[in-house]
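Fold it.
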Amino acid sequence: MKSDRQKRKTIDQLNMFENRGGEGELGAQAPLAERMRPRDLGEFIGQAHLLGPGRILDRLLQHRRFHSLILWGPPGCGKTTLAKIIAEKTESHIISLSAVMAGAREIRAAVEEAREVFAKRKMRTWLLMDEIHRLNKAQQDTLLPHVEDGTLLLLGATTENPSFEIIRPLLSRARVAVLEPLEEADLKKIIVRALSDKEKGLGRFPARLAGDAVDYLIAGSGGDARVILNALEIGVLTTAPDTDGVRNVDLETAKEALLRKSVHYDKAGEEHFNLISALHKSVRGSDPDASLYWLARMLDAGEDPLYIARRIIRMACEDIGLADPAGLVQAVNAFHAYHFLGSPEGELALAQAVVYLCLAPKSNSLYTAMGRARETAGNSGALRVPLHLRNAPTELMKKLGYGKKYKYAHDFEDGWLPEVYLPGELAGTLFYEPKAGWEAGFKDRLNQRRAKVRELPNGERGPGK
């Protein structure tokens, strides 16, 4: 552990940046992540699937093709930086806005500026719109016609799925480039560059990171270069140099600097649906290990456990059903157990239900049967209820034949008799087919009963049969 005296001494090193050069208004006082922002493609690390030789952005830049783009990816993967590099490399006029601050008025002002620049200098204008998902529908509608007629070339950056956040007309007029979280090798390159760069980085403060400290920063960053660089700056500048003048950043320091692992999660966004989808499909695939992992991911990210419990109930009905009726019992009980206990104790009930459903036999027979029934009901219209199945609470209804010839099943052996309960037009239609587990034990008996119904005289099977 470092002494308080050592920490005070090394924290003072932060002030040494005030006389150094740097990018932006804050210059040397800007965070390391801002100072290390790449200024050209030569400095840009990662996204080889877009920028590699022959890839889409490489081709667009080489041929100076102007086309509106939306860069979609997680935080810290280089969206905003890449947008600026693209705009500068095409030697165009640039207007930078952030959707957090900009509205319809700022968009109209950008349009007027673009028109003036083209009239005077015959130069196209890129509108760099950071956090474009923050624009509401009316603001996007304001932007649309000017992107459509080419007055503005849109370069949007967003962490949210454009399919959900960008109106369809605007989305159809731009190409979406998907950026991936930075890979481990890319993040290591960024760390090395930051430690060695004496102009913008930490090169004036010789430092050595322990291997487990590097691994921790990378694992905890979620592929976000900004998180790593900001933690790296704190770790290096709050570590006292040894007798050789080198700052040795160990695992403990890395943990303190990172504070907590960065979790990319948005309860209303795509990652929310990605994780619950992964959990559901892991349960369906009978993999308890993967299911527990995705459950833990959602809980650690702050997802509402009762939302997860409701989805577990859905899994029990959709993927287990009558193959193991106890699956639904487990799922509902887990919901009530969590509601009663809360976190963290109640989370174990969710884990129990998830593992039980993984181990249970699987059947989607109820799910598919209900889907077929609803489709048939929707396509067949309001078919009349057969007279013998109608309620007859009045004498008039009885005289009209309501309930006539209805046979009470309990009056027969085994509580069953061959009878048609569907409208005559649908007699013989099958929706439910048992598959596995508990329900499979009834398959033969169900088929025998259906065969006896098919043997009924036509007159007893309803019209048209």
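The chain has a mean pLDDT of 85.
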